[in-house]
TrEMBL record:
Record Pfam families: Phage_portal
Protein name in UniProt: Phage portal protein
InterPro entries per record: Phage/GTA_portal, Portal_HK97
Source taxonomy: Bacteria, Bacillati, Bacillota, Negativicutes, Veillonellales
Domain of life: Bacteria
Amino acid sequence: MKLLDKIKKKIRNSSDSADVISLSTINELFFNNQANTGGPDISEITYFTCLKTLAESIGKMPLYLMDENKNRIMDHDVMQLFNVQPNQYMTPIQFFTYLEYCRNHYGNAYAYIAMNGGKFIGIYPLDPRRIEIWVNNTEEFTRRSFYYRYMDERNGNSYWFLPDEIIHVKSWITGDSGLSGKSVREILATNMAGSKASQKFLNDLYQKGLTANAVVKYVGDLSKEKQSLLLSRIEEQARENGRRIITLPIGFDIQTLDLKLTDSQFYELKKYNALQIAAAFGIKPNNLNDYSKSSYANSSAQNLSFYVDTLLYNITLYEQELNRKLLTRKEQKSGLEFKFNVKVILRGDPTQQADVLQKLVSTSIYSPNDARRQLDIPPTKGGDVHIVNGSYVALQDIGIAYRGNKGGENS
């Protein structure tokens, strides 16, 4: 069915049901009929892997509320949401995974802060496609206020929110004076289109049995209708039960066109394209299961590099946004702050972990019970005492044992 026919049918059906066709419906018809897209952006495997890696990395890190002495605060009402369920539909890991997915795929992630009598009762993620940012342009730019408008597609209602009522985490590149972010797929539109087109080409090639195009040669002339009928019969035979032999009328011959992916460097270009998309997300090749320059020995170093080069910025975005939206000025001044536990990312193998914990305990940074908690082992009696080598002395006391003696005699 042609595109205009589809639009006419949509309008006719909408008028019959007393509904008005929306602009999004027309856009959907246009975008779904682009022959070169090869499906939505998320269907591209490299793009999907990058989204999955970043979203799961943020989602699996526990969130703590710490005081100025780095003690965990457990009795704050917002921690009940982040430890058990932010809302009745999600667990904490699902909540942060969805926010990070929206932040990367749409450029912005939004969540509504529900309160009752000054107490947090829920945090609800919102669809970024239904959010508009309205800015008051009559004020000076230093005092210019803005509001969020959310359009609920289920009941058709619009809701207006103040900035303090919305958690808004955006991508690193922004427009509109920093009010909203832009997604990677918007920036890499040309690259993404080429990547999806290459995948669509491979899919078509597999459906044809990995055979190239062919030319049918015959003597004489055929009308356009008979040509179409002949080609349809040949294609039908080729696809029938995966057969490799077809029959032709007398005087007809078929010749395949030579197609070699190696000559066109198809694999090299596809791999390079995938690495370019991953680089835009800050994803390393080993996160894409490319271990050509990786080994088990340097896996810990790669995790550290992934944390420092990629995750640290994303984590800081969430921590700063949560600090300014979920903590009062008094709590902020007292030193309270949200912190993600990055140890789940940097945790090494058992041998490395044991070596690190031993050094931390022997230097009195950790108590034995602190180390046991890192291993999910219950504390032991007397294990909260910090221990250190008895031969250690304070810096100002170095040489105090020799100050009263000189050459073995009393001074």
